[in-house]
Fold Oxidoreductase molybdopterin binding domain-containing protein.
Amino acid sequence: MPASDPATGEGADPTGDYGAPRRLWRTLDRHRPPGVEAVTTGWRSPLRGPWLTSVYGLALLVTLPLVIVTGLLDYAAYSPQFGQAFPFDVGWLRLPHFDWPTRPAWLFQLTQGLHVGLGIVIVPVVLGKLWSVIPKLFDWPPARSVAQVLERLSLLLLVGGILFQIATGLLNIQYAYVFGFDFYTAHYFGAWVFTAALVAHVVLKLPRMVTALRSRPAGAELRTGRAETRPEPPDPDGLVPARPDPPTVSRRGAIALVGGGSLLLAALTVGQSVDGPLRRMAWLLPRGQDPGEGPNGFQINRSAAAAGIRPADTGSGWRLTLRGGGRTTTLDRPGLLAMAQHTARLPIACVEGWSTTQTWTGVRLRDLAALAGVPDPVAAHVESLERNGLFRRATLQANQVLDPDSLLALRVNGADLSLDHGSPARIIVPALPGVHCTKWVASIDFRTDA
């Protein structure tokens, strides 16, 4: 059988019917979109080639699975079995249901911090990887066989997917809700589309990446300066430019530029999860910085005014309603303060990535459950005084109610809770997402069935 010409797509077809595809490729080749030629031939950096592309690819291969896994774990932390994770209905993409653990207490702080932090830190690596392959993204015709069509489709989903996830994620943590669609739904399904495309891309390209990384000793390449930098030999994928320009920077410099950008972003975000001086450097996180002084001088995700809380709702007339065991119990704040008080130092972590650790004092939830007549609840449904918002209610798992550090907090850092921090009382549970640590609690329903 005659060999096929990879440049034109010409050659024998086992069916004997190769004329139509060949004419299609030729027609497409003659009618190139404006600008394609400038991109494919005008980007002539001698740094481009399989080795540099594979270095960036290896960095993403190490970090992207962490971003994906921590994102899925964060979704599980919202207890989707109670219908309170967003999106609610994910069809066959639902995760296996399990009780989110309360130990270690910093679990959600870690997973959400890694998800958001790594998502920011890898941005320069993603841009470096795209720069290294951008002429190939504009190849014309885009494919010359069915196999190439499938490969290009996976590449489109991969590039489009990661840019979509990064762009919407960054806008969300900046509280820039300009989407015109539900962020949580789009981010969840977008993550699955991107993950599928990433798996397909790794399966197709991993052998070539390994070969490329072995083709040039990393140590020698990182010792090579700009003057000694030479283009790589021509490669089957066409990453090396046909007529490269003289180098303006070495590959070592290109890697340092990307790595330095990632380190800078890390320095500007790590303070979101670290109490102390570094928090003042969390310039990329609007809620990550230190908001004030005093016992209540730490972050909030929603103020009392934004939640529609009126002073009369939380004054001397406030009452907590406990339900369970076929009876209703009502307590005022002095009644709660008269109960056994417990103190725990626990983090509170927000979906936007910031977290802080404070010392909370209040009544154990398991003591309230016993008072309500349900010492071994299956779940607890908590409602807030809020009049609007997605998170005005939350359902807690049995292990979250019964953990010895799970509290209906009345005080923080030795002082009464401020109104913005949930006064007269709020929920604090180890490893629980911050939005489910309900503020301005109005009632708790301890349940004996799911």
In short: The two ends are 67 Å apart (CA to CA). The first helix runs from residue 19 to 30. DSSP finds twelve helices and ten strands in the chain.
